[in-house]
Design brief:
The chain is an alpha/beta fold and 431 residues long. The chain is built from 17 helices and five strands.
Length: 431
Amino acid sequence: MDVDTVIVLLTRDLRVHDHPALAEACARARWVVPLFVLDPGIDPRHRRGFLAETLRDLRSSLRDRGGDLIVRAGDPVTETVRLAGRIHATAVFTSADVSAYARRRERRLAEACAAHRLLLRLFPGVTVVPPDALRPVGGDHYRVFTPYWRAWSAMPRRPLLPPPDLVRLPPSIEPGEPPEAPTLPYGALPGGETAARWRLEHWLALGLAGYAEHHDDLSCARTSMLSPYLRFGCLSPAEVVARAADRPGGEAFTRQLCWRDFYHQVTLAFPDLPRRDYRSRDVDWTGDGEAAQAWRAGMTGVPIVDAGMRQLAAEGWMHNRARLITGSYLTKRLKVHWRIGGEHFADLLLDADIADNWGNWQWVAGTGNDTRPNRMLNPIRQAKKFDPTGDYVRRYVPELADVPAEAIHEPWRLPTAVPGYPAPIGGLDNG
């Protein structure tokens, strides 16, 4: 063994399969201590239940391999160093991340490890390609997706790593308890690597082949629903790409995972992505007023927008096409600032990843990486194209359950108003 005792500080990598930091620790150290710290600086909000299930599932997987998940609460740097002192650890391994908060944590951890003579190593694993691995000529990161996609596609991949056969935990460590899962779960998905791997197998076998043709169909469940598992690291994105790439439908699906990597490298270069325009636009934004409140509540009077917002509130998830429609409507038609929309999504989405959420909001608002910043999605045309029979709208807007298909997306054109459903805001009553 090269080192005696390693703490593997877990953050957004809550799995045992293809986990570079955990695999290296198990290969090199006599004792391995997987540690998760419940950080009061990060509020999981509606994701508490998903996180609780994920941690319990991870504990079970580690115990099956002879180890355990050590859970503490407090500042991650303080708790890591405190535990290292108690068990005489000699190294800390952790996965590198890109958000401003994560990078501050890494800097503080580096300073603390140096002060306490602990070896610190950062590993890949949050993305397919490390976010600092690809740079265009004359720039620090890619600002446009298509050239990034070409470079990303040609990039050699690291080998996938099997889960460790044995995790050797030193004796006499109090494991601590993960948070309790709510009695009534929020969202449609169970947390954890076990559920994630089942869903991946199901998707590869039954869903992937039709992805390119049907992924924008709002009325059918033709998307993978893997994004919450990627956000919490229950799945390795590198493994998902490796297993999907050469199958029918794999290229279109892999392209979406490349978008995830793209926004991570943008966030690494521009950590203020959640707060400032990536590309400044002269837009007279409105504030958090009645229009924003109607949008949050799914009461804009535009059925496709309201269906998306109500799906978000009920399930902690929203179809990607609906995210584009609702985001464009808020920012381009109502002129509500993208931060207001992004904060609402960050509150409710199970898959609210900092890079993806804010990268997508800035894209749709025209302040981000879209090469057509004035792009505006017409919600009626989008609805008729991607929900032609109105099944998606009826599922989430029951007030419109009896409206025929020809009027479902423009109920204001009916001879009489639909009881309980508002007239549209944003000028759509005129076409």
